Amino acid sequence: MLQPTDFRALGHELVDWMADYLENIRQYPVKSQCQPGDTARQLPAAAPEQGEDFGALMRDFQDIILPGITHWQHPNFHAYFPANSSVPSLLAEMLTATLGAQCMSWETSPAAAELEERVMEWLRDAMGLPASWLGVIQDTASTATLVALLCARERLTSFASNERGLAANGQRLRVYCSTETHSSIEKDVTIAGIGRENLVKIPVDGQQRMRVDALAKAMAKDVAAGFCPMCVVVATGTTGTTAIDPLRGIAEVAQRYGAWVHVDAAYAGSALLLPDYRWMIDGIELADSFVFNPHKWLFTHFDCTAYFLRDRDTLLRTLSILPEYLKTQQDPYVNNYRDWGVPLGRRFRALKLWFVLRSYGLEGLRERLQAHIDLAIAADQWVEQHPTLERMATRTLNVVFFRDRPAAMDEAALDAHNEALLQRINATGKAYLTHTRVNGAFTLRMVIGQTYVTRDDVQQTQSVVEAAIATTLT
Ligand SMILES: *Cc1c(COP(=O)(O)O)cnc(C)c1O
Questions:
Q1: 267: Cβ below 6 Å to ligand 1?
Q2: pLDDT in tens, 259-313
Q3: Amino acid 168: pLDDT
Q4: Which of 40, 229, 324, 448 is 20 to 30 Å from 76 by CA-CA measure?
Q5: Other C-beta atoms within 10 Å of 415: how many?
Q6: Taking 90 as the threshold, does the pLDDT of residue 333 lie above it?
Q7: CB-based contacts of 333: which residues, under 8 Å, 6+ apart?
Q8: CA neighbor of 196 nearest in space, from 182, 178, 175
Q9: What is the DSSP letter of 354?
Q10: DSSP class per residue in 401-428
């Protein structure tokens, strides 16, 4: 059995493996080429009775597991949104794992709680969020948005639904978001007991942004019919096309009805470090809560979601539970973050964010974000100038949207052609893109957000796309 004294030698060996991996990451196929069952087939049906040596574990990690890994830190990973990392974040994760602390309360690791409070203040101020707001780290944006909905629900029902159930006041609650909003909103609405039927999806304009006039109309109609508007979720950077909903206009309408305004900037939030992008949250002082994921585009390992809120009392009244065995003497003086989210147990996540913020500095972070945006501007020009590529949505940040449009193909044929094109690109293992639909049309998305991506990497992806176009047409 391995003992703490075995760690040094094995750890050094492992760090060498990790360093080799990071240096050679371009040699791996970006997207795992495994078929369903390929990994499971190689795994025994039962756990071993006898312990095995570490060498055997590492061999199987390399032979069985690695082929089934999609390499998210590969510079040619352009799919979904990134879950990027960085050297300081990785080093901090090693320390976090070494400490193995469970940071549910202040007392269970005072430094974890106080560091979290401080780095959230740093982020809040660096991003131009209201100075009076507070922040807390959550595991994911999905959970943070659930927290926002629960707070909105309790505020609207004067905390009666927590006590007596959602039917307590006999109110019929409604939540609003655009048709382009992330699927987590719908999931959260169902979990919060509001019911999918009460999630009203507001139509978008030509640039995929929520239409304020349509929201005002829908809310007025609902109120006339006896519904209670509970919350409006604003998408600051939709998942499909990074469209930015008009926050101020939406918040002004929501205010008329006392509805909670929650801003989902899960991806685009990082760009607020750049003063040029502050317009995205014009009107934030009218909102109640805001979420973004440093674990997407801020060089911090998954999981790390930053949730900011205006009113701590509503949050604590909604979520705190204090059984005898969790009471501590410091409770009146400190933040017990177990009361600020859904799970009781919490990882020490502030450390990696602290390492990232200090190692890069705000200037270093801005430089990297801007570099990604500049690469996307160049890629967008490549789309524009290419003889058969068609731009499908306006670039806001570091994502470009396109399809191939050879002459004389109708929409159905174009969809099929571009779907085949995407498969062909991803099968090369040299780049990984995913798709969305823009006004119904199959559209390739190319996100340029891996921490260390270079111009050469992006040009390599462009060559892969061009080669795939040539072979898909034959
Ligand atoms: C990624 C994303 C989410 C979900 O993020 P998780 O942290 O994985 O839950 C929610 N909203 C938007 C706009 C996103 O881009």
A1: yes
A2: 999 999 999 999 999 999 999 999 999 999 999 999 999 999 999 999 999 999 9
A3: 78
A4: 40
A5: 18
A6: no
A7: none
A8: 175
A9: H
A10: EEEE--SS--HHHHHHHHHHHHHHHHHT
Q: How far, in Å, from the CA of 44 to the mean position of ligand 1? A: 35
Residue 178 Cβ inside 6 Å of ligand 1? The answer reads: no
Strand partners, 442: 437
Q: How far is the CA of 305 from the centre of ligand 1 (A)?
A: 9
Parallel, antiparallel, or unpaired for β 305-309 and 134-138?
antiparallel
Instruction: Note the residue count of the chain.
Output: 474
Q: What is the dihedral of CA 458, 461, 467, 470, to 10 degrees?
A: -90
3-state DSSP call for residue 120? helix
Q: Which of 455, 465, 308, 462 is nearest to 371 (CA)?
A: 455
* Ligand 1 neighbour 303 (Cβ under 6 A): no
**From ligand 1's centre to the CA of 292, what distance in Å?**
8
Q: Which of 215-219, 246-250, 334-338 has the lowest mean pLDDT?
A: 334-338
Write out the two tokens for 323: 């059984």
Question: CB–CB of 263/234 below 8 Å?
Answer: yes
Quick check: CB of 142 below 6 Å from ligand 1?
yes
Residue 266 CB–ligand 1 contact under 6 Å: yes
How many whole angstroms from 331 Cα to the centroid of ligand 1? 32
Instruction: Say what angle helices 247-256 and 212-224 make with each other, to 10 degrees.
Output: 10
Cα–Cα distance for residue pair 268/266, rounded to 1 Å: 6
Pocket test for ligand 1, best of 142, 145, 186 (most atoms within 8 A of CB): 142
**Run of H or E including 358:** helix 350-385
Hey, what are 212's tokens? Answer: 């304020």
Q: Is 254 in the pocket of ligand 1 (CB under 6 A)?
A: no
Q: 316, 318, 345, 347: which is closest to 331 by C-alpha?
A: 316
What CA–CA distance (Å, rounded) separates 247 from 255? 12
Please give the DSSP secondary-structure letter assigned to residue 35.
P
In tens, the pLDDT along 194-241 reads: 999 999 999 999 999 999 999 999 999 999 999 999 999 999 999 999
How far is C-alpha 181 from the chain's CA centre? 13
Burial of 36 (0-12, 13-18, 19+ CB in 10 A): exposed
Probe target for ligand 1 pocket from 183, 184, 304, with the most ligand atoms within 8 Å of CB: 184
Residue 67 CA to ligand 1 centre (angstroms): 27
Mean pLDDT of all residues in the chain?
96
CA distances from 14 to 8, 19, 27, 250, 339 (A): 10, 9, 19, 51, 37
Under 8 Å between Cβ of 72 and 83:
yes
Neighbour-count burial for 66-97, b at 16+ CB within 10 Å, e otherwise: eeeebbbbbbbbbbbbbbbbbebbbebbeebe
Name the residue with the closest Cα to ligand 1, atom 14. Answer: 266
Contact between 70 and 319 under an 8 Å Cβ cutoff? The reply is no
